[in-house]
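Researcher: Structure prediction, please.
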Amino acid sequence: MSWTTKQKKKSKQWMQEHVNDPYVQQAQKEGWRARAVFKLKEIDEKDKLLKPGMTVVDLGATPGSWCQYAVKRIQPGGRLIALDLLPMEPIVGVDFIQGDFREDEVVERIKSALAGRQVDLVLSDMAPNMTGIAATDSVQVMVLAELTLDFAQQHLKNGGDLLVKVFQGAGFMELRQAMQVSFETLTTRKPAASRDRSAELYLLARKKRLA
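Model: Predicted structure follows.
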């Protein structure tokens, strides 16, 4: 079987699984843009992340299901700034920036949008374009997670929280250790909506320590 044939077969299997996925069906029924919303919803309901009046930054936001959920939970008085490499259809109450988080100029645009406000919560569901090569993908995900931690260290208020997607693999333990230095508590979350075969986990770091 050729590589192209294998890829087509894999794509067809994924599409069948996607269409039959109960979370996909529920998201469509309830008007969410993606099934990923149920990951954030489960964590929020368990850990009470989002509250009215918060300033939140959502990294890797497109297509916007996390924004849809979060922007409702932080009202009245909340502010949500979202970023993604890909475009995102507008959502009322969300300030969207399109750009590559790995570029300094894009990070500066986030800072400008914050206009001096300290951040209460950083959310990151970022993932690179996957190659299918586990070692390569794991490294790329970890680079984004490390950049997210660096951003959180600089812009979260003291006592603020960080939720970031990671893959178990190279650099995972080092990232955990770095987060434990900067935050009072660190827990691992694997929401029910995360597919069983996926290596993704969410690290929830709470109460940023005094810098």
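Model: The helical segments are 3-20, 22-30, 37-47, 65-73, 104-114, 134-155, 172-182.
Researcher: Thanks, that helps.
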